[in-house]
Amino acid sequence: MNPNDDIKEKTSRFERISTVIINFSATSAMFGIASGLVLIWLVTGPVFAYSNTWLLIVNTGTSIITFLMVFLIQRSQNKESIAVQLKLNELIAANNSASNRLLNIQDLSETELNTLYEHYRKLVELTQKAPSNTQSHSVEEAIILNEELDAANKAEQEKAEE
Prior knowledge:
By secondary structure, the chain is mostly helical. The protein folds into two domains: 13-94; 102-161, no CATH class. It has helices at 13-25, 28-47, 52-94, 110-129, 139-161. Helix 1 packs across helix 3. The longest helix is centred in the middle third of the chain and has 43 residues, at 52-94.
């Protein structure tokens, strides 16, 4: 029995079709088909004297395909992104030394992400100063270090102003 059976639900017809199209569009066969269509387009140009109808058919066809593929690719990327995020969440939750505050990091604002990035940058500095490369540091340590450095900088500024 598959452990995921309890969370799987019947996939919709659209999801099955879009998955097949996305998977097929990334194959060598599809590249060959697309190359063949471009070759046919080039060969038929002189036959139809590069008429407006010929251009309209080609432009309309490529526009429709591009429009649909943008949404299919975005849907595929969103699904893959959610799956990767869930896998990372599982790894964070399973690791005792990892910070659980990172589980919902994708919901943070850009400002909050930049602040967290700065904390990790400080963590890199802390790690570089550590006597051992195998010593583990948490984001909490980086936050404390960052607060201490901010307090020290503020004290220096106040002292310089006096």
